Amino acid sequence: MSSPLAPVDISVVIVAWNAKHYLEMCLDSLAAAAPHRSMEILVLDNASTDGSAEMLEAQFPQAKLIRSRENLGFSRGNNVAIRECRGRYIALVNPDVVVLPGCLDALADFLDKHAKVGNVGPRVLNPDMTLQISCRRFPTLWNNFCSATGLASLFKNYPIFTGEQMFFSPHDRTTPVEVLVGCFSMIRREAFDAVGLLDEGLFMYGDDLDWCRRCWNEGWEVVFYPGPQAIHYGGKTTAPYPVRFAVAQQRSVLYYWSKHHSFWGVLGIRSIMVLHHLLRYSFAVALGLVHRKHQAASDVRKQVSGACLRELLSRTVPHAARVNEFETSSHGI
């Protein structure tokens, strides 16, 4: 991860795949909200075919473009770029993020003042400027059961019943959190040196969860800091392919559980997943019968849950090669 070139304060790493429109907005925001500190921008293009690389070269020559001949996935793509970074702090930014003024400086200032913090994330907003939940708890069988059965939706304000996402938190105060959602965070270089890079077995999804867990295990704190802000347009690239990405996400969940939990934990999470998709499939069938105008949505839900159930009942825990069968992700890779 070292470089013979002069160091900079902040390295911004973006991994993009066919996200030209959002990538342009992201880079525009970085230009408009440039920090007072020294900064470099590295963009790993995962073999895009929409002209993303050409747009970047023409409009943002200050950014370093790293072209890949194949889609490396989110984790591996980030790792390639991180190895070329010169920054004391490395900001992993999704291409569908708009960085607001002062954000990068504020995050770097925070890390300057808190030597034990390895990873810090800003307040994340939806495009309509409402709060986007960016703090999570580590997955357990209980919080996954609450999500699978709908308890998490019914009792959002009760921490005991919510799932991994911290809906009960107002996200209005600086606080250590177990997991920061990976759309945007800033990581101390020393933390990467101690914890290691992202797990390349996670082609998409779960990379943030896995890395934050390893970060805590190595004694580094993960902190949510609500002062700086960014806008996240998440989910736009995955919406046309609901089945594909639901199965991909499920594979990453099982990969994570097989890495960090026992056989009984993996068996438990698989059972909860089966329950979830059986309930979801049944609800979709009932909704389609009662409300014909919702038939299209019901059909999509049935397709998603049906595909996930087939995976759960026919496959063992996925290895990296199985995760890598997919070529796109919500990270915009």
Overview features:
single chain, 333 residues, Spore Coat Polysaccharide Biosynthesis Protein SpsA, Chain A, 2 domains, ten-stranded mixed β-sheet, 12 strands, 20% strand, disordered C terminus
Verbal overview:
With 333 residues, this protein is of the alpha/beta class. The protein has 2 domains: 8-134 and 171-232, Spore Coat Polysaccharide Biosynthesis Protein SpsA, Chain A (Alpha-Beta Complex); 242-323, no CATH class. 43% of the residues lie in helices and 20% in strands. It has 12 helices and 12 strands. The protein has helices spanning 20-32, 52-59, 74-82, 103-113, 141-149, 151-154, 189-195, 207-217, 242-260, 263-290, 295-314, 320-323, and strands at residues 8-16, 39-46, 64-68, 87-93, 97-99, 117-125, 131-132, 135-136, 175-176, 179-180, 184-188, 221-232. Strands 1, 2, 3, 4, 5, 6, 7, 9, 11 and 12 form a 10-stranded mixed β-sheet that branches. Strands 8-10 form a two-stranded antiparallel sheet. α1 (20-32) links the parallel β1 and β2 (39-46). α1 (20-32) runs parallel beside α2 and α10 (263-290) runs antiparallel to α11. The two termini are 22 Å apart.
Which helices and strands appear, and what pairs or packs with what?
Layout: E1 8-16, H1 20-32, E2 39-46, H2 52-59, E3 64-68, H3 74-82, E4 87-93, E5 97-99, H4 103-113, E6 117-125, E7 131-132, E8 135-136, H5 141-149, H6 151-154, E9 175-176, E10 179-180, E11 184-188, H7 189-195, H8 207-217, E12 221-232, H9 242-260, H10 263-290, H11 295-314, H12 320-323
Parallel strand pairs: 1-2, 1-4, 2-3, 6-12
Antiparallel strand pairs: 4-11, 5-12, 6-7, 6-11, 8-10, 9-12
